[in-house]
Amino acid sequence: MRKIMVSGANGLLGQKLVTALAGQFEVLATARQDALTVQVPGIRYQPLDITRQADCKQLVHGFQPDVIVNAAALTHVDACETRREECWNINVKAVENLAAAARRNMAQLVHLSTDYLFDGKQGPYDEDDTPNPIGYYGKSKLASENAVRLKGVPYAIVRTNVIYGTGEKVKNNFFLWVYNSLRAGKAIRVVTDQYNNPILAEDLAEGIRKMISASRYGIYHLAGREYLNRFDFAVAIADVFDFDKELITPILTADLNQASPRPMKGGLKIDKAISDFQFEPRSLDTALDFLKLQL
Ligand SMILES: NC(=O)c1ccc[n+]([C@@H]2O[C@H](COP(=O)([O-])OP(=O)(O)OC[C@H]3O[C@@H](n4cnc5c(N)ncnc54)[C@H](OP(=O)(O)O)[C@@H]3O)[C@@H](O)[C@H]2O)c1
């Protein structure tokens, strides 16, 4: 059985990844906390802060994984803008730690990245488009990709965007914010000028499982099928959950005064993943129906 180590296993994607990989692979889940938040039979757990170089080296040396999947990151876009040193330590330097550790036994490093490394002038983007990040989060993720590519390890970089879903003690994501607000009858303001193709966390995890199973390397874009703006996404959530759509007010990104600029027309073309390993994300409505059953 091939061995896989997952970092950031208590994050939204991390939880779905360890669940999707268990059974087919021998999984070592790692995260900063003392315990794994999801209960998955048969997988091992070790605490790991990926900014600690010696700990990364020791853990990888002991477990000897064939593949390391890095789902850990500082994902809060505005926090990255204001806490740049912390952002760089987690999103870049720690990735160098994992790459160096992976190289010792030539494990494949599968690293998660983002459409925020594009400027958002002409999305959706394919794998050959030229990155031009406009915020610090995107800059840090581009630097992390370069760290992976230059380290001399077999790698796959998985770029994604707007991961949504629910899990055990997960941080807020766009879907949960809309869901919790509307369910409580709370009015929300949602931007009409930011476009992406959001992906259900389970579908992303399954795509990554397929990519690893098919022994694929290089850059892949894994995202959802529908390209839409955040306002329309919020309305779709309200429709499926029978919430009051009048609670959603359309606004523009400029109205928000966020610390970090946002790419407007982001999003990712997913044709390469569909043809190379039959990536099959469900439609937005099917994904929301799935969440309705989960919640
Ligand atoms: N969420 C999105 O919409 C989105 C879009 C594009 C790309 N991505 C990328 O996809 C990946 C997964 O995102 P996600 O949505 O699952 O994010 P998430 O829910 O925020 O999970 C990230 C996890 O990383 C952990 N982490 C942070 N610093 C760490 C460290 N030093 N050592 C170990 N773990 C650490 C966090 O744990 P703590 O609780 O301890 O901080 C958190 O559990 C990230 O690489 C992200 O950049 C996400």
Strand order of the largest sheet: 3-2-1-4-5-6-11
The radius of gyration computed from the alpha-carbon positions, rounded to a whole number of angstroms, is 18 Å
Structural class of the secondary elements?
Answer: alpha/beta
CATH architectural group: 3-Layer(aba) Sandwich
The proportion of residues in beta strands is 15-25%
Bound molecules: NADP nicotinamide-adenine-dinucleotide phosphate
Outline the biggest β-sheet.
Answer: 7 strands, parallel
What is the succession of H and E elements?
EHEEHEHHEHEEHEEEHEEHEHH
Question: Ranges with pLDDT <50 over ≥5 residues?
Answer: none
Describe the model:
With 295 residues, this protein is an alpha/beta fold. It has one domain (3-165, 197-227, 266-283): Rossmann fold (3-Layer(aba) Sandwich), CATH 3.40.50.720. The protein has ten helices and 13 strands. The strands form four sheets. It has a seven-stranded parallel sheet with strand order 3-2-1-4-5-6-11, with helices on both faces. Helix 1 (12-21) links the parallel strand 1 (3-7) and strand 2 (26-31). The longest helix is centred in the N-terminal third of the chain and has 21 residues, at 84-104.
